[in-house]
Amino acid sequence: MAQHIGIVACSIPGAALCYETIGIEGAKLMGEWGHPEMTLHNIPMSEYVPFFERGDWPGIAGLMLRSAEVLARAGADFLICPDNTIHQAFPYLLPRSPRPWLHIAEEVAREAKRRGYRRVGLTGTKLLMEGPVYPPKFAEVGIELCLPSPEARQAINRIIFEELVYLKFLPESLACFQQVIEGFKNQGCQAVALSCTEIPLLVNDSNSPLPTLDSTRLLARAALRKAVG
Fold first, then answer.
1. Contact between residue 215 and residue 108 where contact means Cβ atoms under 8 Å apart
2. Please, which residues have CB within 8 angstroms of residue 140's CB and are 6 or more apart in sequence?
3. CA of 47: how far to CAs of 53, 62, 179, 216, in Å?
4. pTM of the prediction?
5. Same domain for 117 and 56
6. 49: containing domain
7. Which of 2, 25, 47, 173 is deepest in the core (most CB within 10 A)?
């Protein structure tokens, strides 16, 4: 009997990609049309953004906890969040959570280690790139993280919040990411972590100068493996 996966969503397209990945790839492990039971709960992103703007991570943890409690009542055995940035609230969330969680940065770091990478470029929201979610997880597995320039971080952040969360995919935005990733390549990076859950909708292995670590699908696959044991 597969475990029930609870998905705590923030932005819509990344959560949808995570949900879809579990549903479609579940058949590889569970047989035709098979996948674990899933429940997704979303508090509107508009409620999260004011907390982002003032750096109120306990407040964000409170929103995540509301979703966690809904999912626990729905029967979820464990929880995932396909939003990298709000993992910064985990220290405030986990002690109060009704269910255990997988951690998206742990799954990305684990895959980078499995592939033998030693240096990886990081992309995501400005808060994520400059925050504490990824560095300790990569340090634990002995992998160095590289960041874009401050100007590039701002450009990536704008693309995420003004375009990708609304499913807008512009050629010039793809070119911006490609330029950033080419810079990582010149710095000796062996891969790029796509650590906003919407970035894989724009950037992938076919158009990236470096191999990609797709945080959305890596989390989904980890949840699928855990659910089916």
1. yes
2. 109
3. 11, 11, 33, 22
4. 0.96
5. no
6. 5-103+218-228
7. 173
The tokens describing 19, both together, are 């949900």
Those residues of the chain that have pLDDT short of 50 are none
Residue 225 φ then ψ, to 5°: -60, -45
Distance CA 21, CA 108 (A): 16
| H, E, C per residue of 124-193 | CCHHHHHCCCCHHHHHHCCCEEECCCHHHHHHHHHHHHHCHHHCCCCHHHHHHHHHHHHHHHHCCCCEEE
Task: Assess whether 97 and 108 both reside in one domain.
Answer: no
Residue among 209, 197, 219, 195 at smallest CA distance from 11: 197
Q: How many helices (H) and strands (E) does the chain have?
A: 10, 7
Q: Which residues contact 19 (CB under 8 A, 6 or more apart)?
A: 7, 38, 40, 220
| CATH number where 191 lies | 3.40.50.1860
The tens digit of pLDDT for each residue in 193-226 reads 999 999 999 999 999 999 999 999 999 999 999 9
99, amino acid identity: R
The count of domains in the chain is: 2
